[in-house]
């Protein structure tokens, strides 16, 4: 059995960020083999991930990056179980590591991002698992990427909600203010799509059926149900699709009108909204 010194424990702690006692136990179990000890600590993180897989992750931190030319945005949300963990340096550093990896690799999907290898040879997923072993909480990543003629971004003041908005036909307009306004609208009003053409057909069919049932319950004639349901569907579009929503800062304008007023023909092509705990 190899003798485990305080220097060995400190070295492993520096390598992994794990607690002193966890490092000592791992080195003892690995008979002084540092790589084996790192694997033991990582397995500890995986055990915590498996054990706490059903736990709610309602705290965390959102970070965003938009390319210098303003055409591509990356949005990361790292969720945890408690507010205190969301504030520690190791957690915030991991958020930045994940965002940097997304920007560096231009990852198309969350799966691609988690598989990204860092300079230390570990994947992003392995770094997440390592931190779970250290803090004893479930961590969960949400990732969104968006490319457009111009991309605007917004992080809410609680750092738990973020938005990317793709704009086109911006002309010579300064999109900073209007882009922020539209992004804030998305955070607050949670639209389901850019416009009615983007609403899932299953959602449309469900809203029509709900409208018919409501009208039927009110005693409306059967022959009128379809027309009434279509009217309710149009109201749904107005309230739940971004371009048709009333602008929260000025209800005399829809978002479509706000954009067109800013620059003729300007519109939204897509948006991504991520939120932790809501």
TrEMBL record:
GO CC terms: cytoplasm
Keyword terms, alphabetized: Cytoplasm, Elongation factor, Protein biosynthesis
GO MF annotation terms: translation elongation factor activity
Coiled coil: none
Tree of life domain: Bacteria
Protein's job: Associates with the EF-Tu.GDP complex and induces the exchange of GDP to GTP. It remains bound to the aminoacyl-tRNA.EF-Tu.GTP complex up to the GTP hydrolysis stage on the ribosome.
Protein name: Elongation factor Ts
Organism of provenance: Hymenobacter psychrotolerans DSM 18569
